[in-house]
Each structure stands twice: as structure tokens, then as C-alpha cells.
Write a structure and sequence with these properties.
This protein has six helices and eleven strands. With 169 residues, the protein is of the alpha+beta class. It is globular and about 45 Å long.
Length: 169
């Protein structure tokens, strides 16, 4: 087992509702995660929240290896039964590689979004400066708490509206 794989296996998770959120990762509000492996490489993927929202991921549109990307630029796309989603780069840098296993089995993202379902590896260009713009675990967890409260409120509203329509209220 490589050092990186060993480190990932020791990751501790926070739980928010039904969503796993690894500690020591960084996040975008748009639900991409980044794991800083060392000063030269950062691994990127989508969060548990994102993969559950997308549901079954059916296709991976690989981006361009060697491409220079800016923070918040699209680096590739994934398709699910619900939509085609753009994957944003949490950091500026150079795309070193994509997870080739996703071409044949994109559903790996659903099964293991923080492990085997990683999407790309980037060589960061402005790591120290851009880390400040990412959410740490607790802030991302709070973001998910707010989203789940909104989701719950909408469901209750829809349920009450449906009851009202049935009873003529």
C-alpha cells in the first residue's frame, strides 16, 4: 500500500445527516473536495453529498491531461441519471492525471467518492494563497447542515401543499 493510500485509510469522518465528510480535506461549496497529498500534488473529487444528489453516475468525460487550470474552472464532466455536471478545480495548477478507472466504471464515484472514486490529480500553482479560499471540514459540514435544513423545509412545504390540494384547503 502506498503512503498516500495508507494515509487515506486512516481518515476520520464527520457525519452530517447521511453524509460522510472526511477531516483534513478542503472543500468548495459546489461540493468538490481536495486532499493535499504534498506540496506538489492535490487529489480532487466530488463529495458524498454531491454523489448522492447526482444519484447514479453513468459517464465520465475526461478532461485534458497537462492542461493549466485556474481555480473554479471546469476540469472535466460527469454524467448521471439526473444531469451532466461540471467538475470545478478547487485550485489553480496543472492537471497531472485523471482517474482512468472512471472511464470504464464511473459508478466508482458513488461507491467510494473519497477513495477509489477520486477524479484528478493537480500540481497546485498557488497552494498557500488558494487554500485560504477553500472550506475546512467544519465549515463545509455547516454548509451541508444548512442545505439539509433547506431540503427538509422544502419537503415539508411540498407535503403540506399536497395535503391541502387533496383536502381542498
Amino acid at each position: 500500500m502506498s503512503g498516500t493510500a495508507r494515509e487515506r485509510s486512516k481518515v476520520e469522518y464527520m457525519k452530517v445527516d447521511t453524509y460522510d465528510i472526511p477531516e483534513n480535506y478542503y472543500y468548495l461549496k459546489e461540493h468538490e473536495w481536495v486532499l493535499i497529498e504534498n506540496t506538489d500534488t492535490a487529489r480532487v473529487g466530488i463529495t458524498d453529498y454531491a454523489q448522492k444528489a447526482l444519484r447514479e453516475i453513468t459517464y465520465f468525460y475526461v478532461g485534458k491531461r497537462g492542461a493549466k487550470v485556474k481555480r473554479m474552472e471546469t476540469i472535466c464532466r460527469i454524467e448521471s441519471v439526473k444531469c451532466v455536471a461540471e467538475i470545478l478545480s478547487p485550485l489553480s495548477g496543472v492537471v497531472l492525471r485523471f482517474n482512468n478507472a472512471l472511464a470504464d466504471t464511473p459508478g466508482i464515484i458513488n461507491q467510494d467518492p473519497y477513495g477509489k472514486g477520486w477524479i484528478t490529480i493537480i500540481r497546485p500553482a498557488n497552494l498557500d494563497k488558494e487554500l485560504e479560499k477553500l472550506l475546512e471540514t467544519e465549515l463545509y459540514a455547516e454548509h451541508i447542515r444548512q442545505l439539509t435544513r433547506i431540503d427538509e423545509t422544502l419537503l415539508i412545504h411540498r407535503w403540506k401543499k399536497g395535503i391541502g390540494e387533496k383536502t381542498g384547503e
